[in-house]
Amino acid sequence: MTGPGTTAGTPTYRTSRRPHWQDVSAAARDAVERRLNARVVAGSSAIAGFTPGLASVLTLDDGRAVFLKGAGPTQEAWLAQAYRREAATVAALPSHPATVPLLWTLDADGWFLAAYEAVAATHPPRPWTQKDAARVLDTLVGLGASLTPPPPGIDAPSWVGEFGTFVDQLGLLESRLGAARTAEIRELARRVLLEAPATTLSHDDVRDDNLLLGADGSVRLVDWSAGLLAPPWFMAVVAMIAPAADGVDVRALLAAHPATRDVPAAHVDGVIALHLGYFLGVADLDEVESSPWLRTHQRWYRDATLRWFERD
Fold first, then answer.
1. How far apart are CA 296 and CA 293, in angstroms?
2. Which long-range contacts (CB under 8 A, 24 or more apart) does 153-156 make?
3. Contact, 271 vs 241, CB < 8 A?
4. Contact 198/231 with Cβ under 8 angstroms?
5. What CATH number is given for 130-310 in this structure?
6. Which alpha helices (DSSP H) does the chain contain, by range?
7. Is 156 exposed, middle or buried (0-12, 13-18, 19+ CB in 10 A)?
8. Residue 19 has pLDDT above 60, yes or no
9. I need a labelling partner for 257 at 20 to 30 A (CA). Which of 65, 67, 95, 237 fits?
């Protein structure tokens, strides 16, 4: 079974519609170059993801490279606000090999711009392999440990408030799975929110295009648009949705890893159920003009999380 970019109908990691470096106003480009104390000789836009903001690797005339994200005055206000939240979150994260440091932020000519270290890495190849899934699992449980307790300076909401409404959305399953099975899945979602303490600052959107794998074995988790408080193993479990849909036995991986083997299977299922509830609620909404592949992506994740329970 294959994932996004194949049966999903989305081009593999080619889903974004973004402005390019040359689309940034001349005044803002000049401000960036002054801040870098170098001239930009090339800009390569990221083509993965679903946010319509600037995301470009800039090559400088002194041989350095930086990754620049930003939004301008003609774009929707929420986009610049999201990038500001992301920059503030990353700035407050403790140093960890799985994160990418923020270098600086800049307001210039109506643009908000944030520079991050440029990372030599690629998104996980699809379909997922067990080796890559294990590598990501190991990294994310380590990252979760470093974010327990949550670092100061980040006012993140609890996952109970953020995910609680998704329990009711699971009622949409009844026509497909029947009343009894739907009730079981809703109970899994409800129980994990009640029984698994939110002790850890967690990324709220762990998916393939937010993961970077380095040739040196490193794994980076990027795009911290916001955080939430969740169990320490939350990020690792969410990252396993796509590998599971690609045929990797992630239940065995989770059961064997020292950091997750004591997590009740019902809690793992509960996290997957909460995501199923979310995708049931958004997958069939109106298409988004600025992100033409978003709904296709969400429908794929809806079906992937549904198959998790159909295999039970």
1. 5
2. 153/92, 154/88, 154/89, 154/92, 154/201, 154/227, 156/201, 156/226, 156/227, 156/228, 156/229
3. no
4. yes
5. 3.90.1200.10
6. 26-36, 77-92, 130-146, 159-169, 174-177, 179-195, 234-239, 241-245, 250-256, 265-282, 294-310
7. buried
8. yes
9. 95
Taken in order 100, 72, 228, 233, the sign of the CA dihedral is negative
Decide if 27 contacts 21 (C-beta within 8 A).
no
Least confident of 90-104, 119-133, 241-255, 287-301: 287-301
Helix (H, G, I), strand (E, B) or coil at 43: strand
Please tell me the distance from the alpha carbon of residue 58 to that of residue 117, in angstroms, as a whole number: 10
The confidence band for 243, taking pLDDT boundaries of 50, 70 and 90, is very high
User: For 245, how many CA atoms within 13 A lie in the half-sphere containing its CB?
Assistant: 22
Q: 21-117, which class in CATH?
A: alpha beta
Compute the distance between CA of residue 40 and CA of residue 36 in angstroms, rounded to an integer. Answer: 9
Task: Kindly tell me the sign of the dihedral angle through the C-alpha atoms of 262, 263, 266, 272.
Answer: negative
Neighbours of 185 (CB within 10 A): 25
pTM here?
0.92
Domain boundaries, the chain: 21-117, 130-310
